[in-house]
Design a protein that fits this description.
Elements: H1 14-18, H2 37-62, H3 67-97, H4 106-131, H5 136-165
Helix pairs in contact: 2-3, 2-5, 3-4, 4-5
């Protein structure tokens, strides 16, 4: 049985009303969801490069390179790409942390893919020219074909990875 409203104690007493400390729970930032931190990068790079080694070996062979040279070049390119991937994504996420607009829009994903692929192309063109004993122009044409494929692959892989493992903390709205 409930008490009549007039018999209930007031919501605040004199001592509570004069106290400067609020009893309301303070709002704390939300914790990021999904795979985060170093493991996110390890899983990301591992999956991305495993698929990249297989596909790039096949693409090199499709352009007439022998399988041995294609496999070595694919592994070398992957090693360079891993170092670049870790560096570029760390830099990108540092930039992303400073942005007021959170999330990964289509424009942000396109900028990410262009930045990553542009950097990797600058490193791989001279290496491919030397390894395959072709001109810089031929290496540039070869890289252009790979660039188109990997630009789309990078975009789709990042989108799928974020859908499966969640956005990185830098892209989540963690305000209370």
């Amino acid at each position: 049985m409930s008490k009549p409203v007039s018999a209930m104690a007031p919501a605040t007493s004199l001592s509570a009303a004069s106290s400067p400390v609020s009893t309301a729970p303070s709002a704390s930032p939300k914790k990021p969801t999904g795979l985060q931190g170093p493991w996110r990068r390890v899983v990301f790079v591992g999956l991305y490069e495993l698929i990249a080694i297989i596909v790039s070996s096949l693409l090199f062979m499709a352009t007439g390179q022998n399988s041995g040279d294609s496999g070595v070049m694919a592994v070398a390119a992957s090693t360079i790409a891993i170092a670049w991937n870790l560096t570029f994504n760390w830099l990108f996420e540092q930039w992303e942390l400073r942005q007021t607009q959170k999330g990964r829009s289509l424009l942000r994903r396109i900028a990410h893919a262009i930045g990553f692929e542009g950097g990797i192309a600058a490193m791989l063109i001279p290496l491919m020219a030397w390894w395959f004993d072709i001109s810089l122009w031929e290496a540039t044409v070869l890289e252009a074909g790979l660039l188109v494929f990997f630009m789309l692959y990078t975009f789709v892989f990042n989108w799928a990875f974020d859908r499966i493992f969640g956005l990185p903390a830098s892209a989540q709205n963690l305000q209370p």
